[in-house]
Design brief:
The complex is a heterodimer of chains A (131) and B (106). Chain A is mainly alpha-helical and 131 residues long. Chain A contains five helices and one strand. In chain A, helix 1 runs antiparallel to helix 2, helix 2 runs antiparallel to helix 4 and helix 4 runs antiparallel to helix 5. The longest helix of chain A is centred in the middle third of the chain and has 29 residues. Chain B is mainly beta and 106 residues long. Chain B is built from one helix and six strands, in the order βββββαβ. The chains are: A mainly alpha (131), B mainly beta (106).
Chain lengths: 131, 106
């Protein structure tokens, strides 16, 4: 098994995330962002709005986190070769969750755009799972 | 009599010391050295599936069971450690890392 004539792979992985990747995580956070935007629109209470905005910003960070984890840990060079648009998609999606998107704004259209981007990433993810 | 072997690191849990792709020279047939990295056999995961051979740092004896070894990853953010799987028996420390033999050119 271990020898000088054959190089054995030894793992330096964590095992919780290994194999447990799903763009659904990012989607759930993006859906709650969209719901928060709707609730804020219907509620003039400043305390509620402050709290909602705080949570919306946290959820936006989580969207970015989950997408980055997929990008760095799940997707591998062959995926990027087969789906060259993937880098741009992740960049655009995380930007949509940032200050110029759902994190900084209260715009339901931005949340919809974000959901659509996540769905595009999810479609590629599903295809890589089939392969 | 100790004998040498080569292993290749896969993953990021030993960053910054060892990178993915690094080839390490290891010695079999010697006692674990506290503070040194080692090739270890980890217990099966929660689903009962065997884990692959791993490279971890042997930090020292298990405080609760001095004849067993406490293992840790160098990258605090990643990796299975004794905090997850408990300490390891002597016979699960398969080889001691002597050093990096080769790092991929890039």
């Amino acid at each position: 098994m271990l020898s000088l004539f054959h190089i054995t792979d030894v793992s330096a992985h964590c095992d919780l995330p290994c194999g447990v990747y799903d763009p659904a995580q990012a989607r759930i956070e993006a859906e709650s962002i969209k719901a928060i935007i709707a609730k804020v629109a219907d509620n003039p209470d400043p305390d509620f709005r402050t709290r909602a905005i705080l949570i919306k910003e946290q959820r936006s960070e989580l969207v970015k986190h989950h997408l980055w984890v997929l990008w760095t840990d799940y997707f591998k060079p062959p995926h990027f070769e087969k789906y060259p648009e993937l880098h741009t998609l992740v960049n655009e999606a995380t930007k949509l969750a940032g200050a110029s998107g759902t994190k900084g704004e209260l715009d339901a259209a931005k949340a919809d755009e974000l959901l659509a981007k996540i769905d595009e990433i999810a479609r590629i993810f599903a295809e890589t799972k089939k392969a | 009599m100790p004998w040498p072997a080569l292993v290749r690191v896969r993953g990021r849990s030993m960053l910054p010391t060892y990178r993915d792709g690094d080839v390490l020279l290891v010695l079999r047939g010697i006692r674990p050295r506290p503070g040194r990295a080692a090739v270890v056999r980890l217990p099966p995961d929660a689903g009962g599936h065997p884990r692959p051979l791993a490279v971890k740092r042997v930090t020292g004896p298990d405080p609760a069971a001095p004849q067993r070894w406490w293992i840790d990853s160098d990258n605090a953010a990643e990796g299975v450690t004794s905090f997850d799987v408990g300490s390891l028996a002597d016979h699960d420390i398969l080889a001691v890392v002597v050093g990096s033999a080769w790092r991929p050119l890039r």
